[in-house]
């Protein structure tokens, strides 16, 4: 009945394939909204399991999923199949990295960003620009969030706006600084509204600015970014150098023999701000530190972080689990 979509638009939605890369806060709200909108094929990719702390903002999950230790992708698929049995929903328990990202988004008409770290977002940006797939960036922390549509060849890509990922430990994360549900719902709704325009063939109506929202201060702004693409300086969309796909900036993981531990290191030199990281980690666990490293016990893991950003995550032999712990609590 809505004139902006109509019967023809609804038919197009039913033929569309959307990938939600990440099914945490933003991803779960977006997947829920798109399934109810009648997106014909929905692929949900996530590497994590449902935890109790997720429930205040991740709308597809409940206490039963926590008790059963279900992967988020599995729990999301089960829930959305009950919401809309007429669409094809597939949950993939997978860690997106440079070797599989192109396969994960192959055949998609659109990708929704539900990732929780810059490394994955820059990887997604490379893959989508390379293959001409639109994607919609989204991020939230505290009461603040932002979103931007990337249409390869038409709009700035993420690297036009943000030249590179911040050094490890520099940015706060949801698990150390918190995030409230209202801003998650607002940003995911903005992502989905733009998705509906694209998927119904109305790319000319898409907002070409970056939208920022602070629900605590009731402030909404639009940042004019569309001219950045015209500068021609972007290594990704202007010069088509896909450095993240080539793993030039990817974190490296090594499973340590006999230690039930994974080491995470980075190709670039960094210096961790121990004071800032210690302050954030103190909210989730007991922190020990000296001039060379800091150590924190988080859930079932012991995380040791060195001055150059390198870390050892004890309590797992799975690189994907270690990367998830690092992204949640240290941040990159």
What does this 3D model show about the protein?
- It is a single chain.
- It is built from eleven helices and 14 strands.
- A hairpin with a 4-residue loop joins strand 7 (210-214) and strand 8.
- Strands 3-2-1-4-5-6-7-8 form an eight-stranded mixed sheet, sandwiched between helices. Strands 9-10-14-13-12-11 form a six-stranded antiparallel sheet, with helices on one face.
- The mean pLDDT is 92.
- By secondary structure, it is α/β, with parallel strands linked by helices.
- The protein folds into two domains: 6-231, NAD(P)-binding Rossmann-like Domain (Rossmann fold), CATH 3.40.50; 252-329, TATA-Binding Protein (2-Layer Sandwich), CATH 3.30.310.
Sequence-ordered SSE layout with sheet pairings:
Blueprint: H1 6-15, E1 17-21, H2 25-37, E2 41-46, H3 63-67, H4 72-83, E3 88-93, H5 101-105, E4 110-113, H6 118-131, E5 135-141, E6 144-150, H7 158-161, H8 174-177, H9 181-199, E7 210-214, E8 219-223, E9 252-256, E10 261-265, H10 274-281, E11 287-289, E12 293-298, E13 301-306, E14 311-314, H11 319-329
Parallel strand pairs: 1-2, 1-4, 2-3, 4-5
Antiparallel strand pairs: 5-6, 6-7, 7-8, 9-10, 10-14, 11-12, 12-13, 13-14
